[in-house]
Amino acid sequence: LSITSLFLGSTITITSNHWIMAWTGLEINTLAILPLISKSHHPRAIEAATKYFLVQAAASALLLFSSMTNAWYTGQWDITQLTHPTSCLLLTTAISIKLGLVPFHFWFPEVLQGTSLTTGLLLATALKFPPITLLLLTSPSLNPTLLTILAVASTALGGWAGLNQTQTRKILAFSSISHLGWMAIILVYNPKLTLITFYLYCLMTIPIFLTLDTIKTLKLTTMSTAWTKIPPLTATLMLMLLSLAGLPPLTGFLPKWLIIQELTKQEMTPTATIIALLSLLGLFFYLRLAYCATITLPPNSINHMKQWQTNKSTKMFITTFITLSIM
């Protein structure tokens, strides 16, 4: 029921022309994911579900308020006809809260840390699609300066905060915030490029989440013993992490290259230089993850159980995603 509602909510938002329908789809999405977050009956999961609900409800209310303000001044309920400056500002804020862009990012790492890896995957990919679609539809009337500031701040904080983490879910959460910065910066100038970046981000994140779920790795300390479980999967995990970091021969390099090229065309070379340098912070913690997964041997005094035997039934579709992620 929850999964069907998720698909339904996303589809309603993506295909609607009317603001009320878009808002309805977002609300259905929020209500559908709550049971999945709180499924494990752990206090941490309940806390995550509560945080998620409050943040999303506030963002949805703000989105409805922005569309009503626009309708009040212009008489238009059409999504593409968002022309009033105050409404544009409110909408940008509402969508930033929904996506977890800086400075509205505080809820995202906490919620991701409180859920399972599979639900975390949904939060990081599928639930970002409807708000990004709304941004794409309204992109001609959004404020480029505001989006650039939010984007640079997100890329910076995603890199800096990720350096300090030992939990893989929090690292992936900050990685998501950093990538959202790359998507937001190019939104006004080339919306299709934002969509390509989002698709490729999903393509790279899905196999990482599924691999970590398969080898049951939630912390950096357990990552160093992961090679004993499924060695080939751990070896490809390193390549996937480097792809997410955006190293040249891998898939993740393509969107960053295209975005920097487009920013240079728009005569925003300083901004392009800044976000390129800030992505190096992200590269550092991806390298640390890759190093822990493949190169290090654990020290002798480990205070958790070594799992030499593991369930060999790896999900078959992981291989497809892995191949596309590191092509």
TrEMBL record:
Domain NADH:quinone oxidoreductase/Mrp antiporter transmembrane as annotated: residue spans: 16-280
NADH dehydrogenase subunit 2 C-terminal domain boundaries: 283-327
Transmembrane segments: 20-37, 49-69, 89-108, 120-139, 145-164, 171-189, 195-212, 233-254, 274-297
InterPro entries: Complex_I_Subunit_2, NADH_DH_su2_C, NADH_UbQ_OxRdtase_chain2, ND/Mrp_TM
Superkingdom as given in the UniProt entry: Eukaryota
Topology term for the membrane: Multi-pass membrane protein
One example GO MF annotation: NADH dehydrogenase (ubiquinone) activity
GO biological process, any: mitochondrial electron transport, NADH to ubiquinone
Enzyme Commission number(s): 7.1.1.2
GO annotations of cellular component type: mitochondrial inner membrane
Record localization: Mitochondrion inner membrane
Keywords: Electron transport, Membrane, Mitochondrion, Mitochondrion inner membrane, NAD, Respiratory chain, Translocase, Transmembrane, Transmembrane helix, Transport, Ubiquinone
One Pfam family, short name: Proton_antipo_M
Catalytic activity from the UniProt record: a ubiquinone + NADH + 5 H(+)(in) = a ubiquinol + NAD(+) + 4 H(+)(out)
Sequence similarity: Belongs to the complex I subunit 2 family.
Described function: Core subunit of the mitochondrial membrane respiratory chain NADH dehydrogenase (Complex I) which catalyzes electron transfer from NADH through the respiratory chain, using ubiquinone as an electron acceptor. Essential for the catalytic activity and assembly of complex I.
Protein name per UniProt: NADH-ubiquinone oxidoreductase chain 2
Annotated source species: Thamnophilus caerulescens
